[in-house]
Amino acid sequence: MKQHTVIDSPYGPLTLVAEDGVLCGLYMTDQRHRPHEETFGTREESLFGEAEDQLEAYFAGELKEFTLELRLCGTPFQRSVWEQLRKIPYGETRSYGELADALGNSGASRAVGLANGRNPIGIIIPCHRVVGANGSLTGYGGGLDRKRRLLDFENGTALF
């Protein structure tokens, strides 16, 4: 059974979704590949305390690595990409090619990009930390402005 809540953040409202009590989604407003609202299940405010606490600590600059249990629903390749994303340290970036290399498939940069774009748990699985080979900002489901703001925040250069 799925349940959800909506919380405020410095980057706009975030919709948290859980299935059987385990976080399976974090979606931003106007996010590309955002599922339809009716798939989020019933609204439940009390289920997401730990996720809310960790997100609050992250946005306060006090948390660098999330320790939440996650339910990742995707293809085996997508899940392997999302696991690689979780290994990118706070404040650092990796290119799509570097992620493909880490997966042992240097020719898979485009596939890595597609899997990255389908990440169902933004911010917690830090797909915003992936950039182009030359360091340029490239696609982000939450929008390039949010991606820049998240990267600036993690680098300590954000202006709120």
Automatic annotation (TrEMBL):
HAMAP family: OGT
Residue stretches making up the Methylguanine DNA methyltransferase ribonuclease-like domain: 4-72
GO cellular component, one term: cytoplasm
The UniProt record lists the keyword Cytoplasm: yes
Compartment(s): Cytoplasm
Function, in words: Involved in the cellular defense against the biological effects of O6-methylguanine (O6-MeG) and O4-methylthymine (O4-MeT) in DNA. Repairs the methylated nucleobase in DNA by stoichiometrically transferring the methyl group to a cysteine residue in the enzyme. This is a suicide reaction: the enzyme is irreversibly inactivated.
Stated family: Belongs to the MGMT family.
Catalytic activity line of the entry: a 4-O-methyl-thymidine in DNA + L-cysteinyl-[protein] = a thymidine in DNA + S-methyl-L-cysteinyl-[protein]; a 6-O-methyl-2'-deoxyguanosine in DNA + L-cysteinyl-[protein] = S-methyl-L-cysteinyl-[protein] + a 2'-deoxyguanosine in DNA
Gene3D superfamilies to which the protein is assigned, alphabetical: Methylated DNA-protein cysteine methyltransferase domain, Winged helix-like DNA-binding domain superfamily/Winged helix DNA-binding domain
Main location: cytoplasm
Miscellaneous section: This enzyme catalyzes only one turnover and therefore is not strictly catalytic. According to one definition, an enzyme is a biocatalyst that acts repeatedly and over many reaction cycles.
InterPro entries registered for this protein in UniProt: MethylDNA_cys_MeTrfase_AS, MethylDNA_cys_MeTrfase_DNA-bd, MethylDNA_cys_MeTrfase_DNAb, MethylG_MeTrfase_N, MGMT, MGMT_N_sf, WH-like_DNA-bd_sf
UniProt keyword annotations, A-Z: Cytoplasm, DNA damage, DNA repair, Methyltransferase, Transferase
Top enzyme class: transferase
Leader sequence segment: none
Name of the protein in question: Methylated-DNA--protein-cysteine methyltransferase
Membrane-traversing stretches: none
Domain Methylated-DNA-[protein]-cysteine S-methyltransferase DNA binding: from-to ranges: 76-155
Gene Ontology process terms (BP): DNA alkylation repair; methylation
Record carries keyword ATP-binding: no
E.C. designation(s): 2.1.1.63
One GO molecular-function entry: methylated-DNA-[protein]-cysteine S-methyltransferase activity
Active site: C127 (nucleophile)
